[in-house]
Amino acid sequence: MQTFTWEGMPDAVALETVTFEDLGDGRTRLHAQALCDSFEGRDAWLRSGMETGVNDGYAKLDALLAEA
To answer: How far apart are CA 64 and CA 26, in angstroms?
Structure first.
């Protein structure tokens, strides 16, 4: 678990939980869940476009792991 915030909304904090599931054959599924402090905060984060950054980050992680 960790807390998360970002420059665009420095007063909003989410509690993130990440778990890993072994799928066999050297594959792993990552489950990520973020609990926001309010529905308004959640909606503002989604409107901000941060989803694109999150998806880009996971794509980079996929690429790095594929190289290993």
So the answer is: 15
Report residue 26 as tokens. 């050297």
Token pair 């690429």 is found at 63
Per-residue pLDDT 10s for the chain (68 aa) are: 999 887 878 888 899 999 999 999 988 899 999 999 899 888 988 888 888 888 999 999 889 988 98
The answer to whether 44 and 34 are in contact (CB under 8 A) is no
- Residue 26: strand, helix, or coil: coil
Distance CA 44, CA 1 (A): 22
Nearest to 33 by CA among 20, 21, 15: 15
Cβ atoms 36, 14 nearer than 8 A: yes
